Amino acid sequence: MIDYRSDTVTKPTTAMLEAMFNAKVGDDVFVEDPTINELEHFAAEMFGMDASLFCPSGTMTNQIAIKCHTQPGDEVICDKLSHIYQYEGGGIAFNSGCSVNLINSERGILTAEQVLASINADDVHKAATSLVSLENTFNRGGGGCYDFNEIIKIKEVCNQHNLKLHLDGARLFNAIIAKKETSKQYGETFDSISICLSKGLGTPVGSLILGNKAFIKKARRIRKVFGGGMRQAGYLAAAGLYALQNNIERLAIDHQNAQILVAALCKKKFIDTILPAETNIIIFSVKNEMTPTLFIEKMKENNILMYPISPTQVRLVVHLDITDVMINDTIKVIENM
Q1: Is 167 left (phi over 0), alpha (psi -120 to 50) or beta?
Q2: Do 144 and 21 lie in a common domain?
Q3: What is the model's pTM?
């Protein structure tokens, strides 16, 4: 199967498996797993931040950050299609007891003006706004990236109103490569950052949350409460360390392959619109007699998997397991439709 459903479907490479097999491990709840400690230190150094914490998933790192930054009854500002709201099981309410102020932005990219307009007044009738969460790249926006200058403006708004700024950076390295940025730019700007290792970077499991020492100390306690305290998880951390050291720059290949597929889709009359594909995610809508279900069925008949995300839209995600041969085979199927 050629699997475009998500970049979470990647399998570890032989070199990554070797790194996992040879990992030195200990009990991480006692902070004694040397490979996890090395991964956390390496990631913190990359971003110029004090510390980081290894967790099973990006949902957990996001939810830990929200709980660290808020009190029950507070309000979180985010886009209406953001992952923390749409795809984390109501965790903002369940875990942190917070409400949300949802912004309807262009492709999930918030502006400083929108954030400012969403901050509640200091009024006992209103929830206390305490946190702004951005997502970069933005999944439902077709992998769209922020202009970093806008992030700086949003940070200034947060500083002026005593708000914390969190980044759901599940695919942050895709944005960094696409926009020619640095991880330290993000570390200097955000109060907390979540990065996934199990998407485009190709590890089987794991995410990291980054912040200052006091934040990570609090996050470690919350991780334990959430059931995320792992023991000899250095075998998983070794995959993450390998990914950060070897698999970031190659994300540009995924971006290039996405553009090749976009060019093929643009030629078909049943394609209505395609969101700008800045990174490795392609979201397109179909028209006429074509439906997402029909399109996906025709793809599956040719051993190609994709994912419907709305009654009119299909999503496909390019990743390191997609080879040039697979790209060419996919184009042939599209051309014959």
Answers
A1: beta
A2: yes
A3: 0.96
